[in-house]
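Q: Got a minute? One more chain.
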Amino acid sequence: MRIRDLLKNGGRTISFEFYPPKNEVGEQQLAQTLEVLKTLHPSYISVTYGAMGTTRARTFEIAQMIKFEKQVESMAHLTCVGHTRADMTEILQEIKDRGLENVLGLRGDPPAGTDKFVKPKDGLGYASELIALIRKEHGDYFSIGAAGYPEGHQECADKKKDLAYLKAKVDAGAEFIITQLFFDNQDFFQFRDTIRSMGVTVPVIAGIMPIANAKQIERFTKMCGAKIPAHVQTKLDGIGDDHEAVEAYGIEYASEQCRQLWDNGVDGIHFYTLNKSKASKQIYENLNLEGSYQK
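A: Always. Here it is, folded:
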């Protein structure tokens, strides 16, 4: 099932994101998480793509396993980093040969140890170029998603320009947008309203990362340019090193965040799970979502 069809005619989605594990312990954790979250009947599960294509084989293997063995629709992430155009052509054919129908087209982060993305020789420099290549070579076969940044991309100080880049992705063929994580819903609503005024009409899916570890979430927000609202930071500071209390607060906060988004017509919610199931499962149950989205 292509994600564009799940979102057709006002359909809404609930989805989870995994990353390919690095060792046997990680493999076991992912397997356990998948079994738990599969019972929630998500619309689809996405699998990330490591820097420089380092997890390429595992990304596609896991996405294929989820789709055909677990009978849950999947989406493979794909980035431009470290790949020539010829590489991209080969990779896209591999994705297609594996029977996968959904791709999240990304530029990708700069490689570790660098702070600036450099366009690969004979490669692509923007996600919009990748999306255009997918469309040129495979027509409508793939349902393509793009990333959106409610608080602006960390590498682009000009928010207006960043939104223009997003529109270029949609104009190139992206059929839905999944946002970077955020903790203030007003940032999401303003982002959605602004791109609608620009003529971007594709579904916008909210990316949510429940807070499970205060130091970890601080690292993530610095990396991606998101902010932690002052009242949230104050609460986390008050909890201190009580990890169970931090996790409980994170679930409570994300549940309310998702409830407000759902009540205000969000097209879908995409949980950044970090390959763990507890928070996402509890939030799903808190929202009582069964029957209110496309499976």
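A: The domain at 3-287 is CATH 3.20.20.220 (TIM Barrel).
Q: Perfect, thanks.
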